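We were asked to recover a plausible sequence for a given structure. The inputs and outputs are reproduced exactly as logged, with field labels preserved.

PROBLEM: sequence recovery
POSITIONS: 389
GIVEN STRUCTURE:
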């Protein structure tokens, strides 16, 4: 019999009580929030917000810090849940900063992640999340479950660290072979069309649904050079004949010009994707430029520093107009050189990003294994609470 089973049989053989989350936490309010415009790329102290990145940036403002402790961070809009055990500052967005009461904080975090049912909607969620029911076994049982689950997450963390190192190598190599002299660069508008949709010309004819085949690609679907289809809107029931300007074809490149500016991805299927508002479409008009080469160049440090960063630093704009995108300068080396570079970078890209092989596949497998055992370990026989509990 495992140690966990022995503890359960000894300490809670009749089951455990379920308690709503709000009875097990204290909400902490910061004295200072770090505005997005003041978040640094490097600094002395980490800033945490409700975004998908674990750490959103840094600050040098020591007065904004929460002291070292165990915290659970809940994204009130994004529903992202994080565990933090070091000093940090809060970013200026809607998060709930929770500390535990009479329960192991790491155990509570694992339970919250396991039992909270996300909606995927960008609205306020704490009013529902605070009622998430948490199994409340004796402390030794909580601690043993944390020990077991920590082992799973440590294995995943090791693989993730190795993948991060590999991605850094990939980025270094990509930047080294995609650095070009200005003399061979030409304006993007000379070799490609750059267009966007007005909101009204899209929404007038679109009907969204939660299932289907035809997808409207939004900014959140364009990430790190690829299409991210975890959160999509289907438009099969729309009048597609009125959306000819929106229809996308293989080789079209998408570019985010608002919000997170500069993300790109290539369309890889016919008759499946349509362009939604707030994403630019870049379509080559010459056979002298390979779409994949263009996509890799748009991801290079040379492009990001000389085109995107320079443009954003010189303006208070929160978006880039189409005419400025057409002014972007990109290299057009001989096709043989473009193909050589694409072949090399495709190999690195698969190793770092393809979840069907290599480290990404192993991490995906480990994550599924962890989620399976987490659910098993946190499922108890239910015991009715006493009147005073």
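RECOVERED SEQUENCE:
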């Amino acid at each position: 019999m495992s140690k966990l089973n022995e503890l359960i049989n000894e300490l809670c053989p009749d089951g455990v009580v379920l308690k709503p989350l709000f009875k097990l936490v204290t909400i902490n309010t910061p004295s200072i929030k770090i505005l997005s415009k003041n978040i640094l790329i490097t600094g002395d102290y980490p800033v945490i917000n409700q975004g998908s990145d674990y750490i959103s940036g840094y600050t040098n403002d020591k007065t904004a810090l929460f002291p070292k402790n165990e915290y659970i961070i809940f994204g009130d809009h994004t529903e992202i849940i994080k565990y933090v055990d070091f000093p940090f500052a809060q970013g200026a967005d809607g998060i709930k900063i929770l500390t535990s009461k009479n329960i192991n904080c790491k155990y509570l975090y694992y339970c919250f992640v396991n039992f909270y049912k996300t909606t995927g909607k960008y609205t306020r969620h704490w009013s529902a999340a605070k009622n998430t029911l948490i199994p409340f076994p004796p402390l030794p049982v909580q601690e043993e479950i944390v020990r077991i689950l920590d082992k799973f997450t440590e294995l995943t963390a090791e693989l993730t660290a190795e993948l991060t190192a590999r991605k850094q190598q990939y980025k270094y190599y990509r930047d080294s072979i995609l650095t070009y002299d200005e003399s061979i660069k030409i304006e993007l508008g000379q070799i490609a069309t750059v267009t966007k949709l007005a909101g009204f010309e899209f929404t007038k004819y679109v009907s969204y649904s939660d299932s289907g085949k035809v997808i409207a690609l939004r900014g959140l679907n364009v990430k790190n050079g690829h299409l991210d289809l975890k959160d999509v809107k289907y438009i099969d029931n729309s009048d597609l004949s009125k959306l000819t300007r929106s229809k996308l074809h293989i080789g079209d490149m998408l570019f985010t010009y608002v919000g997170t500016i500069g993300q790109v991805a290539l369309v890889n299927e016919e008759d499946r994707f349509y362009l939604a508002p707030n994403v630019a479409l870049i379509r080559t008009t010459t056979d002298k430029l390979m779409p994949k080469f263009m996509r890799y160049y748009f991801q290079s440090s040379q492009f990001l520093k000389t085109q995107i960063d320079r443009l954003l630093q010189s303006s208070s704009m929160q978006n880039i107009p189409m005419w400025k995108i057409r002014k972007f300068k990109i290299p057009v080396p001989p096709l043989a050189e473009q193909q050589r570079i694409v072949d090399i970078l495709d190999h690195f890209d698969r190793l770092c990003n393809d979840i069907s092989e290599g480290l990404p596949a192993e991490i995906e497998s480990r994550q599924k294994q962890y989620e399976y055992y987490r659910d098993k370990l946190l499922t108890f026989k239910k015991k009715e609470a006493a009147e005073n509990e």
